[in-house]
Amino acid sequence: MDSITHLALGACMGEAFAGKELGKKAMLWGALAQSIPDIDFVSSFWMDTTSALLAHRGFTHSFLFCVLIAPVMALVAERWHRPHNIRFNKWLLFFLAVIFIHLFIDAFNNYGVGWFEPFSHERISFNAIYVADPFFSIAPGIACLALLLLPRWHKRRKAYWRLCLGVSLLYLCLCIWHKYDVDRKVRLSLQRQQLPYARYFSTPAPLQNFLWYVVAGNDSGFYAGFYSTFDKKQDIAFTYFPKRVNLLEPYLKKADVQQLIRFSKGFYTIDQWQDTLVFNDLRFGQVIGWQHPKGRFVFHYFLKDPDANSLVVQRGRFEGWNASSIAALIRRIGGE
Prior knowledge:
It is built from 9 helices and 7 strands. It has helices at about 5-20, 25-35, 50-55, 65-80, 90-105, 135-150, 155-190, 255-265, 325-335; strands spanning about 200-205, 210-215, 220-230, 240, 270-275, 275-285, 295-300. It is an alpha+beta fold.
């Protein structure tokens, strides 16, 4: 999830843990613990682009990191707030839980997390919720703001952190149900249309959980399309994108290309843009794809000029967004 949502969620968990004992300081500890895995952003300061892609949500999002950092934070917090009546074991369980929740929630985005680093480089990704979903973030945001404004002993403080955790959990369950239902209908649609595929995935389109982006294919190419939970038509309108692996042959031995292939989990195509060769990671969707089925992919990496790739994951994400494209998104969500 986005950093602000992590901060708000952690602050509410801190209030639930020790709001009465520590006041708003408990919210600070919760926000810090919920944010600590994202310290990996510093890797971008010295790593090249493709190495930083794999470092992000890598070791600092692993179970081993959680087990190592939680006792350190518990020891610091327990000594910092002496005298108090909170045992070290309680601090430890709190930090383990808050950090684990961060790792758990991030695994529902399409970027993936390295739960088992450094023993395995497999990325866990459930593709069930968009990385920045206002519907998920609104309850933690409101609750966190209220907890910051209300006095320490206000009787409604408990109601707000319960609102945060309860609504967030319910919305996550809704996202999981949508994921299950969409995947079931995607398989049926692919079967009815007799489209060949060896792998596929579905993931929410930007900023919501009702319109889903779907990709299916094999080593020859991929079919991409959109499906809304409000669609009345059974079949998905797919657009075909050839993989063009042959264009990649002169670059296959390069380290950045090997890292890109590993990062994309095989969901990639190669495009020729005039004199520029581009590696597309299909998992991050298209620029306004619901309006322009042949639109460029958000994640595109320039193979001939690696230094021009300081930003790749969200490159062009909101390019061309205006009143017309937003209205088209809303209509497509509604099943048009």
